[in-house]
Amino acid sequence: MKKYSEMTRDELLTMKAALEIEYKEEAAKGHSLNMARGKPGKAQLELAMPMLDVFNSHSDMNTLLGNDTRNYGDLDGIGECRRLIANMMEVEKDNVIVCGNSSLNIMYDTVARSMSFGVNGSTPWCKLDKVKFLCPVPGYDRHFAITELFGIEMINIPLYDDGPDMDMVEQYVNNDSAVKGIWCVPKYSNPTGQTYSDETVRRFANLHPAAEDFRIFWDNAYCVHHLYDDQQDQLLNILTECEKAGNPDMVYIFASTSKISFPGSGVSAIASSQNNIQNILKLMTVQTIGHDKINQLRHVRFFKDVEHLRLHMKKHSDILRPKFEAVLQTLEEELGGLGIGSWYKPRGGYFISFNSMPGCAKKIVGMCKELGVVMTGAGATYPYGKDPEDSNIRIAPSFPSPEELQVASRVFVLCVKLASVEKLLGEF
Amino acid sequence: MKKYSEMTRDELLTMKAALEIEYKEEAAKGHSLNMARGKPGKAQLELAMPMLDVFNSHSDMNTLLGNDTRNYGDLDGIGECRRLIANMMEVEKDNVIVCGNSSLNIMYDTVARSMSFGVNGSTPWCKLDKVKFLCPVPGYDRHFAITELFGIEMINIPLYDDGPDMDMVEQYVNNDSAVKGIWCVPKYSNPTGQTYSDETVRRFANLHPAAEDFRIFWDNAYCVHHLYDDQQDQLLNILTECEKAGNPDMVYIFASTSKISFPGSGVSAIASSQNNIQNILKLMTVQTIGHDKINQLRHVRFFKDVEHLRLHMKKHSDILRPKFEAVLQTLEEELGGLGIGSWYKPRGGYFISFNSMPGCAKKIVGMCKELGVVMTGAGATYPYGKDPEDSNIRIAPSFPSPEELQVASRVFVLCVKLASVEKLLGEF
């Protein structure tokens, strides 16, 4: 295929006419499809249904230590669930608090606590003139929504194949004491699907923050969410590396089983140094008497141990892989060589990140919507919803059925082509 | 019996000698009993065990509207659970958000949001020089812990048989714009067991707050937690009264099923005006994608409707009533007429509030501890843990078995007697 940029005006006009016919045909079909959010599909939800057989009215509801999960207590989570989740997060049990159903809520709370009470005794961030967070981009819109809500200034950091631009990260963190945090999805990044290299993790661990209360917000949302059994990304353990580097308190790690058991009915956790954990518990004890321990026990009784949990994740990947491949195949077949878009083939996670020609993302997402295919809003992957290039589009292939995905991704590439042609013709 | 205050010094010394022998005997028994926290007992936890039969791997997990509870969505709670809880709270479904497992956490979040973002657009409380809360006393220590943590100044308001001293409440709320809230447990109050009168509720609803962002924090924790079928306290509906009075946004109502289904694994809710609810949802959508909807559906499938829930509460009361009566009988038999303590016989809730002679509460709780009976710390029922009279002791009879309760309450009255004698002898 010829690159669009090398086409003559006449060729582009001819192409446009053909695409417009296709566009009208698709419009007439009245699609109602959604590739907007990282929601597991029905078949994935079925995988965890046996978890609902774990308990009945005659079940023993005690923990291994004999604590009754049906009553108050165990603010930091029941021991066996802390162990299970710690193993999943590749940290020690004592470094983990198992919380409620939402790791996003823990991240929100962690920022909220820092704003109101400071970090381990530092000045509350709300008392400071300026608080800044670094935001590797493209990134997760819900992270950016938290920092925006609290009035924290967000600074874009380019995200490369091996992680954020670490020269820039070091420059900011080591010199500007207003920089208090950085949002990271280090493994199978949302949305790019890439994993930070060992070198990147080590450079993170060896930062010399100007602010003593600087923290890395390490959202390891996709720690066991591989797509391929034989091609799994490995992420270096940041907690261990921070310890080695003499920065034991510098990182908060977050994870959940939202995309392992049930979204909204899983368990979530924060892992950090024992010093940080103790400081968090001191405040958390005012916030709640405890989290849902019956659900914690349900998870342990169902998954047993991290090996079984990994086997369970293989079932998820068997469902997700064909969906990802359907989208990637369509992108390759329809857009390969045209020079109007680029994408990365992820080995895990929930997204495919697509970069259109600059200035086309909003147009493409708008066209998709017109054809009945809802995409994540263009710009959503950037702080304040502003993609300076108007180029990045997050594709979420997990929820639709494979058949729907075929249709949705064909609609998507059609819109990419038409928008690109129009852009090259100078029409917007 | 002769009142202790009317005894001669010799009589008191004789009494003391006898009590000290008893004290030594009890000490030798090595008790290990706890009347400190409002934890349901084992028999109560068993009542909800059939809730664990509600779901199995073949269950239909959809809401009545067809939403899959296993996936993300329904930030404000699933419709049928909002209806159930609204009926329990005696408000409309649209006035309720069903949240996670802890109403305390909702209260914390509500204060935290007001601190960081203000109330419906008002100045964030953290930007103000001074924020004050009124605290009817004795009250719930966990309420006071939240306001203390956020640096909110707490002002004691005497709590009478019919509710807080409303002259004082009106004086503060209507004249001091730094007064932003008041903590209330209006029904079967923690710890006094009393219920606000209709007159009190109407005076609350007709406040003219100096601060537009003043809110009543109405913790209706014991709304359906009666001890007697034929003697139930009735609480006037504050939301309706506030509407009538032209103050529709002035109250936040909290409740949970922690003491209906399982503590820590129930559902909790906030009820308020639709204006307040919409403002809360706007912020809550940044905090979480949603709460545990499977557990919400589990509650609905188990309780069916509020009538069944009330029948379920009757089973709780059948277990709790004898425990309360055992303690009350011991108090009456052992302390009646001695003039060294007073208490109220509650018709619901989780506590018996005991007032010793001034200056004796700490001593009594310390003696109980020495004998192996853990009570709620003296002072805990007051802001900053400071009971100005050192008189109030909260008794929680729910957790121990009836047999343990017999022993524990006899130890308690023994300590009350001995401490009172020592006090009258001027020994401390």
Task: Provide the fold topology.
The structure is a homodimer of 428-residue chains.
Chain A: H1 9-29, E1 33-35, H2 42-47, H3 79-89, E2 96-98, H4 103-117, E3 132-137, H5 141-149, E4 153-160, E5 163-164, H6 166-175, E6 179-184, H7 198-205, E7 215-219, H8 238-244, E8 251-256, E9 268-271, H9 274-287, H10 293-303, H11 306-335, E10 341-343, E11 352-356, H12 361-370, E12 373-375, E13 392-395, H13 402-424
Parallel strand pairs in A: 1-12, 3-4, 3-6, 6-7, 7-8
Antiparallel strand pairs in A: 2-9, 4-5, 8-9, 10-11, 11-13
Helix pairs in contact in A: 1-13, 4-5, 7-8, 11-13, 12-13
Relevant terms:
three-stranded antiparallel β-sheet; alpha/beta; globular; homodimer; 13 strands; eight-stranded mixed β-sheet; 428 residues
Overview of the structural elements:
Two copies of one chain form a homodimer. In chain A, the strands form three sheets. The first copy, chain A, has an eight-stranded mixed sheet, with helices on both faces. A three-stranded antiparallel sheet of chain A has the order 10-11-13, with helices on one face. In chain A, β7, α8 (238-244) and β8 (251-256) form a beta-alpha-beta unit. Chain A is an alpha/beta fold and 428 residues long. Chain A is globular. The mean pLDDT of chain A is 97. The two termini of chain A are 24 Å apart. In chain A, 41% of the residues lie in helices and 14% in strands. The relative contact order of chain A is 0.18. In chain A, α1 (9-29) runs antiparallel to α13, α4 packs parallel to α5 (141-149) and α12 crosses α13.
